[in-house]
Amino acid sequence: MVSTRWTHSITTVYNIGYHIIWCPKYRRKVLVDAVEEVLKLLLYKKAYEIGVSIEEMQIMPDHVHLFVKAPPTASPHWIVQQLKGYTSHELRVQFPSLKTRLPTLWTRSYYIESCGHISEDTVRKYIEEQKKK
Predict the structure, then answer these.
(1) Average pLDDT, stretch 34-56?
(2) Domain ranges in the chain?
(3) Transmembrane segments in this chain: where (predicted)?
(4) pLDDT digits (tens, 9 = 90+) for 25-40
């Protein structure tokens, strides 16, 4: 039986997960339709580039929920910085209307919580249920 709970590197075995939430500036409901679809693609692309795995994602009109698995060398702040910075730049290039509605796409703040094995299923279920509310 193969377990996907742990990730192995040359010197490390780890299971590090983070629940991350952030919002557009002024909590504007701009993450809809084409913006939502492009944002999902951009997040997967950047996560792959930085060596982070997005396990669950839910894009709400006014906020983003992610459950990511990361190597121990990637700090939580750096992960958020990379994802928010890249997506802000790319979305504002592809959707110029975002520039007129918001001075910056994302707020400076975010929520992050580390998740161990016990709470992982709970976080996954919570994120999956977001659209049903």
Answers:
(1) 98
(2) 11-132
(3) none
(4) 999 999 999 999 999 9
3-state DSSP of the chain: CCCCCCEECCCCEECCEEEEEECEHHHCCCCCHHHHHHHHHHHHHHHHHHCCEEEEEEEECCEEEEEEECCCCCCHHHHHHHHHHHHHHHHHHHCCHHHHHCCCCECCCCEEEEECHHHHHHHHHHHHHHHHC
Distance CA 112, CA 51 (A): 18
- With 70 as the cut, is the pLDDT of residue 125 above it? yes
* Catalytic annotation present for 110: no
In the block, residue with structure tokens 């990511």 = 68
Q: In which band, very low, low, confident or very high, does the pLDDT at 1 lie, cut at 50, 70 and 90?
A: very low
pTM over 0.85: yes
Alpha-carbon gap, residue 107 to 70, rounded angstroms: 23
The CATH number of 11-132, from 1.10.1740.10, 1.10.150.130, 3.30.70.1290, 3.10.105.10, is 3.30.70.1290
- Residue 13: both structure tokens together: 């075995």
